[in-house]
Amino acid sequence: MSQEAVNGVPCRGKVLTLDTMNPNVKRVEYAVRGPIVQRAVQIEKELREGAKKPFTEVIKANIGDAHAMGQKPVTFLRQVLALCSYPELLEDNKFPEDAKKRARRILGACGGQSIGAYSASQGIECVRQDVARYIEKRDGGIPSNPDNIYLSTGASDAIVTMLKLLVCGEGRGRTGVMISIPQYPLYSAALADLGAVQINYYLDEDKCWSLDIKELRRAVTEARQHCNPRVLCIINPGNPTGQVQSRQCIEDVIRFAKEEHLFLMADEVYQDNVYAEGCAFHSFKKVLFEMGPEYSSTVEMASFHSTSKCYMGDIQILNHTVIIQAYLNKKDPISLCSILIRKSKRTLQPSHMYSTQNQLLFPERTAVLAALAEKARLTEQVFNTVPGITCNPVQGAMYTFPRITLPQKAIDKAKEAGQVPDMFYCMRLLEEEGICLVPGSGFGQREGTFHFRMTILPPTEKLKIVLQKIRDFHQRFTQEFS
Ligand SMILES: Cc1ncc(COP(=O)(O)O)c(C=O)c1O
């Protein structure tokens, strides 16, 4: 700290500097917003300023941001949101009566009839009741208690809050949290921030990124030597790997969690995004209850859903705080959802398919899902025609995580440049073709393998261009370094 005096008054250094900041935060990395994205933004600026490049726009296929990629918002949701945020519009006859009814109900449950008011910590009660009803319906009638629903500002917020509750202890007693590799970097970032021990279990790329209980067992056994494994995180459908877990696999995971006395965190934000034939989404909660009280009354679990994915891809504008009560009822797993769920899910049930203005709502959802399914197939198909790229089927979620074979000379060149090889590859792709992807190293991958993650969200015609550009680039890159 500098102690130089100015006019006789000691001048002390800044309180917050890179050297003095929280070391846990310093360890946090978030690949989907990392250096490659920063460079993409810079290139966009250069293009705006008239720089000549081999392309005229940067296509950002790095992040699962549906609306940014041109996905059409569901009209009814936008109407309700507009009415809630500006209630004067309730007098406007451009808005359908059912949207007004929905908005009045929400406003009636808010303090001062305003969505700007603080809500109860757990979220607005009538919304939690609706979420519980939705979950019951989704799970074939298995009861869901609104008291176990916690609304949050997004799945990220809820996951971090839950992890905060679970992480404790020191030294070998420090909480270990099992996460899949490849993983969604929210998890590694949150664990670094909390100073928890990250326990990696690897998904099996040769078996379509499936989860093998033997691998879970290996990971937990090794981790017991240096920490206290207490939590198992599962992402289903998977990000970045796009796999959908079979029911059998979910049962096996639940049995494993019971045997190893682990708290289960089921990240199910892509539950509506299932495309592959023969695949279906099974909620962990449903499977847990169907396994009977031996499991449902002992295994502790929280599951997470979001409104920022699939056909919603929406923001949450209702204002509320979230504090997870420290008490968790073992008998009834909790669900943490963000708030638009209630509006959308109920809207999209058959009886709600038409607004009073006879505006068909259902096709908006169907169109989005059909387009995603087509893009999932197209992506797999095109990548698998490129020598040096292998791509598993995109069974669900919004991403593909193809494996790329990189020539040794390219690996050496990357080392010289101080970059990991797949970062070097993605940077070159960005500079030469204007395509922004995320290097596989940002998600974790088996030593010696290289990947990238790409979203399948760009509109079909644009996606075809993206795939073509990657194909051309990969061939050129391979030739250059062979
Ligand atoms: C697996 C997974 N979990 C959680 C989230 C975060 O969801 P939200 O946008 O609701 O914070 C994402 C977002 O991409 C995700 O892919």
Automatic annotation (TrEMBL):
Its domain of life reads Eukaryota
Please classify the protein's predominant subcellular localization into one broad category. cytoplasm
Gene Ontology biological-process annotations = L-alanine catabolic process
Location of the Aminotransferase class I/classII large domain: 80-470
Q: What class of enzyme is it?
A: transferase
Enzyme Commission (EC) number: 2.6.1.2
Enumerate the InterPro entries for this protein.
ALAT1/2-like, Aminotransferase_I/II_large, PyrdxlP-dep_Trfase, PyrdxlP-dep_Trfase_major, PyrdxlP-dep_Trfase_small
Provide the GO MF annotations for this entry: L-alanine:2-oxoglutarate aminotransferase activity; pyridoxal phosphate binding
**Catalytic activity annotated for this protein?**
L-alanine + 2-oxoglutarate = pyruvate + L-glutamate
Which cofactors are reported in the record for this sequence? pyridoxal 5'-phosphate
Q: What SUPFAM superfamilies does its record include?
A: PLP-dependent transferases
Where is it located?
Cytoplasm
Keyword terms of this UniProt record: Acetylation, Aminotransferase, Cytoplasm, Phosphoprotein, Pyridoxal phosphate, Transferase
Could you give one GO CC term from the UniProt record?
cytoplasm
What this protein is reported to do is described as: Catalyzes the reversible transamination between alanine and 2-oxoglutarate to form pyruvate and glutamate. Participates in cellular nitrogen metabolism and also in liver gluconeogenesis starting with precursors transported from skeletal muscles.
- What's the subunit arrangement here? Homodimer.
Concerning its family, UniProt says: Belongs to the class-I pyridoxal-phosphate-dependent aminotransferase family. Alanine aminotransferase subfamily.
What's this protein's name? Alanine aminotransferase 1
